[in-house]
Amino acid sequence: MNTTRKNLVRTATAAAVVLGLTGLTACGAAKTDSSSGSGGGSGSVTIAVPSWVGAEANAAVAKHILETELDTEVKLTQLDESVAIDGLNSGKVDAVLEDWGGAPDKIKLYVDDKKSVVAGGDLGVVGHIGWFVPKYLADKHPDITDWKNLNKYSHLFKTAESGDKGQLLEGSPSYTTNDDAIIKNLKLDYKTVYAGSEAAQITQIKENYKAQKPFITYWWTPQWLNAQVDLVEVKLPEYKEGCDADAKKVACGYAQTSLQKYFNADFAKDGGDAAQFLKNFKWTADQQNEVAAMIADQKLSPEAAAEKWVKANEATWKTWLPKK
C-alpha cells in the first residue's frame, strides 16, 4: 500500500525463484530481437518477485503465459520491494508486478524525475495492512478490537521474547513497518517480535489458532490464510493522507492501497507483446489467493500452480494477451 506497504509483509514462502541478474543490459533487462520489439516473441523478460507468496503467484502465472503463449523467456529474481525499484531504474529488472508503495521517494525520483521507470497500471488487487486478533479472542473480549483498550489486555500476549510487554507478532524483519512507531506514539505496552518470514509467521498463527491461544499480529489482506483462520482487525487511529509521512511520528493505521505495477521505461517502450501483456495483466484478490494457496498451503511448485490456474481460467487470461 502506498506508504502503507512500506511495511511489507510478505515473505519467504516465495521460495526458490532467485535467479542471477548477470548479463542484463544497462538500458533494460529485456533482450528482444527486432521482431519482438515490434510485437513478436523470442525475447527475454526479467520480473522481480518480492518475498511474499502473493507476489510469487503473480510472477508464476505471468511467466507461464509469457513462455507458452508469447514465446518469451522469463527470468524471476527475488528482491525486496525497494531494491526491485532500483533494479527497474538500472535496467536489471523489467517489471515489478506488485508494489505496495514501500519506496515512495524512489518512485518519485525514477518515475517523475528521471523517467527511467514508468507506471504500469494497477494489478487489480487492493491491499491493506493492520493488526489482527483471532475472532475467538474478540468474542471473549469485544473491546479488544479498539486500540485504546489494548494496554488492558497486554498481559494476554506476553511471551518469553516480549518480556513484560505484550507481543505483537511480525513477519520478516526485512519488511518495513510502522509498528514500532505506532506502539511508541500511542504509548502501548507492546513489543514487536519477528517470526523471521511470512512462512514462519503463518506457522505461528496456525499453531496459536489451533490451540485457541491469545495472539495479536501484524497481518494483511489479501492473504490466502484468511480463508482458513477467522481474524478480526484491531481499529487503530484512522489513516489520513500524510499521517505516515514521518516514520518516527506515525500514530495512525495503514491505508487501503491499490497495488501497482512498474516497468523499466525502455522495456515498456520496446518490449513488444511481452510488455503489452504485463500492462494488461490484472486479476482479483480471490484469483491471486487461489494460486498463492496452491503454492503455500497445497505445496505445489509455482510452475505447477500457475499451469493449473491457467488451464482453468482461460477466459480471464486470454483478455491479457495483446490484440492481433
Largest sheet: 9 strands, mixed
**Proportion of residues in helical segments:** 25-40%
User: What is the beta-strand fraction?
Assistant: 15-25%
Low-confidence stretches: 1-40
Query: Roughly how many Å apart are the termini?
Result: 34 Å
Mean pLDDT: 88
Radius of gyration: 20 Å
Number of strands: 9
Give the helix tally: 12
User: What form results from the Cα inertia axes?
Assistant: globular
- Give the class from helix and strand content and strand pairing: alpha/beta
Output the helix-strand order.
HEHEHEHEHEHEHEEEHHHHH
Please give a structural write-up.
The chain has 324 residues and is an alpha/beta fold. It is 34% helix and 20% strand. The chain has 12 helices and 9 strands. Strands 1, 2, 3, 4, 5, 6, 7, 8 and 9 form a 9-stranded mixed β-sheet that branches. The two termini are 34 Å apart.
Could you provide a short overview of the structure?
This protein has 324 residues and is an alpha/beta fold. Helix content is 34%, strand content 20%. Residues 1-40 have low confidence and may be disordered.
